Amino acid sequence: MQASELFKQSNTVLLDGGMGTMLQASGLKLGAKPEELNITNPELIESIHAKYAAAGSRIVNANTFGASAHKLAGSAYSLEEIIAAGIANCKRACAPYGALTALDVGPLGELLEPSGTLAFEDAVSEYARIVRAGAAAGADLIFFETFTDLYELKAALLAAKENSGLPILASMSFEAGGRTFTGCTVESFGVTARGLGANAVGINCSLGPKEIFPMAKRLAEAVPGDFPVFVKPNAGLPRADGSGYDITPQLFAMEMKPYRELHLFAAGGCCGTTPEFIKLLNSVFAGCVPGRPAHKMPSVLCTPVDFVNVDGITVVGERINPTGKKRFQQALREEDMNYVLEQAVSQVEAGAQVLDVNVGAPGVDEPALMPKVVKALQSVTSLPLQLDSSNVEALENGLRVYNGKPIVNSTNGEQEKLDAILPLCKKYGAAIVGLAIDERGILPAAEDRVAIARRITEAALAVGIPREDIYIDCLTLTASAQQKDVLATVQALDADQLRAALACLNAAHVVEVAAASHNLSIALEASVKFGSLGKRCVASAIPEKTRAFAATLTKNDLLLVISGTGRNPALEEVARLARENGAAILLITSNRHSPLAQQADHVLLASNREQRLIEGDHAPSQLSVLLVIEVLYYLMLLGE
């Protein structure tokens, strides 16, 4: 198998099993550095690799898991020498079987800030050294495994992407509660690692097949159906007496059978497993085709411990912004982090789900301050952040140190902005807000804003940003001051979006009724707003006609009634007939206690001014914008 064919296999690929288990059985002494055996006893290492390849492993990890500067301190051999020897041993063993050699990379053995003392960029540099050594030695791919800190995994992934073109498999170890030792969730790992450029994500170590399965299922659901997922469970759990692990190869194979339904890209074993375990997996995964059915990917933002699904109204706290705030500007100039953090904590307590971060102010070195503020915020809050800046350098600096998946606010339709910001979002796995504006400013016509939004979307997709990570801001204008222009925002919602809001109505019919002449023009105006839905409409001053029409309504219809403050027996009769036939009723009125309001499923209260317009037969353009916005919102609630 060639590395280029790795993700095109028609059957689940088998990984190898435990290296440490085999070395301990061969007499490895406590406290010895296993990686030194690549040089001092290459025959032993090569024989272990060969046994796994003979058992069916088609990706074999080189004996380089602990080959980091920290773990090799005091060794007589350099990191580069040990990695080169390890890759060479593995490649010789794999050659007769056509298996691939993976540069196996584990945690560095030092805690990153803020939990420890290792700086993020120092971690990136250490991993870059490891990756360059492995690539130079001829590794076919990079296998990051047994990580528990998402921040450290990010450092490793950035180093791999910036220093090689090799495929990357990334794996974390989770405890029984579904989180890593540092609190990272399965979903946060999946979306973050995918966004940072891992070619496959998986779970290894810590637990046995039975315990890992529910988490593996969650991981598969957190990434697209065609995105590769793998597992390497332990041979059960460690025995209390330290004599090994508690399940046999046969039981391991039996507990791996449920994984067939996940259609894994690859499967193998970790601590306690041997070539015998791997050999039995051949029959377990025989005929198992990788890849799961496509499923709708949600729009998500995350930190390691907090995962926000943006599937409705999501509250973004915007007080960490110096615009119009002299005290905040002063805090930024003085780098008064306590004041900044106070703003964050108060918004968290008030119910914010995402925090916007803007540090651009006169006299502030924004590129230098942004990463400091991001790190400070992530030390006190688990909420995802929205990095808000027009300074490209500041954005990159903030994105680089952010732990998890953030959102960038924002880009627009200007080509220069698209070229500068979208590649950053792709590299760091961030979502992006696209403003429907370009060098011409905010255009009043809906079709012009839609064209800009489409241009932003197409540019984002072209650089590899997933569609679910693209947010479009139609730039809603102030309704009270610019009602004519506000209508452009409503019109920017295309027919497909409105149909989605009406998903609960099988026939997708909106029926608007007016039973008196002074309501006729308003009903007709409203019908224009929803005309693209192919809805049925009746507006008549003759009660008999509207009553006859109401009798034809079904449970698939929504009756929109616009009524004055007084009693209207004809409309009440229409509503009664509609109710008997199962139609939903939406009433616009200023009288919440009217008989019509008692029959309606939902009432939109009109203001006194709006009520006067309704009863005075004024031009509907003066009224319809706000009403249509409210109706749209109600329909969206129905659609959910």
Give descriptors for this structure.
13% strand; globular; disordered C terminus; eight-stranded parallel sheet; 640 residues; six-stranded parallel sheet; single chain; alpha/beta; 24 helices
Helix content: 40-55%
Shape verdict: globular
Total count of helical runs of at least 4 residues = 24
Most strands sheet: 8 strands, parallel
Sheet/helix structural class: alpha/beta
How many beta-strand runs? 20
Query: Strand sequence of the main sheet, in spatial order?
Result: 1-8-7-6-5-4-3-2
In percent, how much strand structure appears in the residues? 5-15%
N- and C-termini, Cα separation? 47 Å
Mean pLDDT: 85
Uncertain stretches of 5 or more adjacent residues = 494-542, 612-629, 632-640
Radius of gyration: 31 Å
Brief description of this entry?
42% of the residues lie in helices and 13% in strands.
Polypeptide structure, described:
With 640 residues, this protein is of the alpha/beta class. The protein contains 24 helices and 20 strands. The strands form four sheets. Strands 1-8-7-6-5-4-3-2 form an eight-stranded parallel sheet. Strands 11-12-13-14-15-16 form a six-stranded parallel sheet, with helices on one face. Strand 14 (407-411), helix 15 and strand 15 form a beta-alpha-beta unit. Helix 13 (366-378) packs parallel to helix 14 (392-401). The two termini are 47 Å apart. Residues 494-542, 612-629 and 632-640 have low confidence and may be disordered.
